[in-house]
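Feature request disguised as a bug: please show the residue count (127) next to Metallopeptidase family protein in the output. Example input:
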Amino acid sequence: MVPTYEQMGDWLEEIAGGFPDAFFLDLDGGIQLEEEALPDPDFPPGEMYIMGEYVHDMLGRYIVLYYGSFAALLPEEDEEGWKDEIFATVAHEFTHHLEETAGLHALDDKDAEFLRQALEEYGEEKK
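Example output, currently without the count:
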């Protein structure tokens, strides 16, 4: 099942509201939902998608989730599966936010290692 963009937005709002207010400190732009998918540029089209990202740029600090990425990767999931993935993605991006504000980068390192291994495995499969 693929919910509508509006339905995912409602679920995101509900899920984000369950996180402590302290997590939102210095998150100027809050949590945004973009309609498009965001394919990972390091992989061939359709192989890997970015579900969400923590952004700190000239506009401030905010979290973006990509509806199209969820739709591409979760077409067979039910409502509970979608909500679980939304929660996991928001929690992951909050961790980036909290680590950055504390001057840490453990999750960045873990994400980089995950991508390194995924690219390595993808390269092995292509041989």
